[in-house]
Amino acid sequence: MPERTIDFGKFGARGIKGSEAVARKLDELSGGIVTPVTVKRGLMARLHYLTRTDHSRRAARDAGLTVTDRTLNAWLDEKRRPTRANLERIDLAYRRVRRQNVARYLLARLNAGGGTRVEIHPLNQSQVARPLQRMVEYRTMNVRRWDRIVGSWASGDHQGLDEAWGDTIVDLGSQWGQYEYVTNIGFAA
């Protein structure tokens, strides 16, 4: 059970926290700008998204983009290029604002029709010595309530997301601790 995954990877198992896999899938479902922020097109698209309205500017400031309007306008007019640290802040602010904007829509999609079917792909044990491997199967389950998961994801609360996902996988029964770390989690809405 969970006590056995405190020292995850000690014998060569590979995978990621289930909550991290869920966050990646939610990011994928939320869509957005694919071009990297380091490319002019990606930077300009993010800046326009973050500065389109007064509401989006406030959301960008709340998300950590705390530069002056003068600097922001210089970036938009391409008179100056943001530093590497500011590029990271722009990308982070974009992801946070995008998550907040699509959270309500995603929540409605995931909760529709009684929930969403989730596929859980177990951790990779190919590097674990044969006597230490355990039988962990591919599992599916129906998640009926996504409110805490999507809320934590939208606010960027990693610990809250981890707790919400942990409370959800308890529905797998006595084996739930084996799915704390996974290679992938898939669902579509």
User: Averaging pLDDT over every residue, what do you get?
Assistant: 87
Low-confidence stretches: none
Radius of gyration: 20 Å
- Record field, number of beta strands: 4
Distance between the termini: 30 Å
Proportion in β-strands: 5-15%
Order of helices and strands: EHHHHHEEHHE
- Helical fraction equals 40-55%
| SS element count, helices | 7
The quaternary state of the protein chains shown equals: single chain
Shape: elongated
Going across the biggest sheet, name each strand in turn.
Answer: 1-4-2-3
Query: What class, by secondary structure content?
Result: alpha+beta
Largest sheet: 4 strands, antiparallel
Tell me about this structure:
The model has no long low-confidence stretch (mean pLDDT 87). The chain is elongated and about 60 Å long. It has 189 residues and is an alpha+beta fold. Helices cover 48% and strands 11% of the residues. It has helices at residues 18-30, 40-51, 54-62, 69-76, 84-111, 147-155, 158-169, and strands at 16-17, 116-122, 139-143, 181-186.
Features:
alpha+beta; 4-stranded antiparallel sheet; 4 strands
Q: Short summary of the structure?
A:
With 189 residues, the chain is α+β, with helices and mostly antiparallel strands. The protein is 48% helix and 11% strand.
Write the layout of secondary structure elements.
Elements: E1 16-17, H1 18-30, H2 40-51, H3 54-62, H4 69-76, H5 84-111, E2 116-122, E3 139-143, H6 147-155, H7 158-169, E4 181-186
Antiparallel strand pairs: 1-4, 2-3, 2-4
